[in-house]
Amino acid sequence: MKAITLSDFGGIENLVIKELPVPVIGDSEVLVRNKAISINPVDIKTRKGQSLAGALKEFMPIILGWDISGTVVETGSKVSQFKNGDDVFGLINFPGYGRAYAEYVSVPASHLAKKPEGITHEESAAASLAALTAWQVLKEKVKIKQGDKVLIHAAAGGVGHYAVQIAKYLGATVFGTASERNRDFVISLGASVHIDYEKSAFENEISDIDFVLDTIGGQYIDRSLKVLRPGGTIVCIPSAASQGIEEKAAAMGLTGSKFLVQSDGNNMKEIALLLSEGHLKSYISKIYSFDQVQEAHLQIETAKTKGKIVLSI
């Protein structure tokens, strides 16, 4: 099979396509023939030697990636929920070793859900890590409810554009920061208020917010704490940029925490239902071919990607 290998941490030139053996599955795994792979910021950070690189360096050369959508071609002896020919998608082995950048991948069956009919493999792959992050934070960790006021930073981005839709679905009034060029997009996702971060300071525009989903970190943590109501909550996604969030929030009578998404097939089933019912849609700004992975990484590095980008196999 063809696989995109990373020979060493560093630049995109280290991403090289090679021929490797098809993986051997375990009793509780399935073998998936990938049709689409989604690229996330964690892929880029890990490639550079940050994020999950420390945990994966013992496997060098490694195969990056965690988001897949494809077709089951083999099932382990203990797998009953899937059969050969089923189209599936999910976030695989996160935050462990995913090996998604390949034509075939062995996956714990418990990490997958059936792909909804009418949803493309590209749309399904996109709605894995990013959509699952938004769902686990909003629905399970914070338990957003009807009438809550929710602020989502980088609302036009990967996690952000799913978070706006999910928060709206859960009954919240959504505020989203994004550039002016993405205003209409953010409003179309379900945000009631768009704030152009390039022209105004959001902390001067809004107040009494119940929950902030911060996908940026750094100074955004301090600024976001100012807009929360007493007892409000902030969750920061980029762990490397969220130092001190718990202490800073607690000092103001607020709740702050970091968050790292976990692979979960049951959650993926919930995402699949939202996709099939039209409550959640993947916006894909560009689809790259498998051999354009270096270009795809460069695009994510701009930190200006609208929605998601995907590799089609």
- The chain-level mean pLDDT equals 97
Computed structural class: alpha/beta
Tally of alpha and pi helices: 10
User: What is the strand tally?
Assistant: 16
* Rough outline: globular
The percentage of residues in β strands lies in 25-35%
Largest sheet descriptor: 7 strands, mixed
Uncertain regions spanning at least 5 consecutive residues? none
Radius of gyration: 19 Å
Report how far apart the termini are. 12 Å
Portion of residues within helices: 25-40%
> H/E element string?
EEEHHEEEEEHHEHEHEEHEHEHEHE
Walk me through the structure.
There is one protein chain. The protein is of the alpha/beta class and 313 residues long. It is built from ten helices and 16 strands. The protein has helices at residues 41-47, 53-56, 121-126, 129-141, 158-169, 183-189, 219-225, 245-251, 265-276, 293-301; strands spanning 2-6, 15-19, 29-39, 62-63, 67-75, 87-91, 104-108, 113-114, 149-152, 173-178, 193-196, 209-214, 228-236, 255-258, 284-289, 308-312. The strands form three sheets. Strands 3, 5, 6, 7, 8, 15 and 16 form a seven-stranded mixed sheet that branches. Helix 7 links the parallel strand 12 (209-214) and strand 13. It is globular and about 55 Å long. The mean pLDDT is 97.
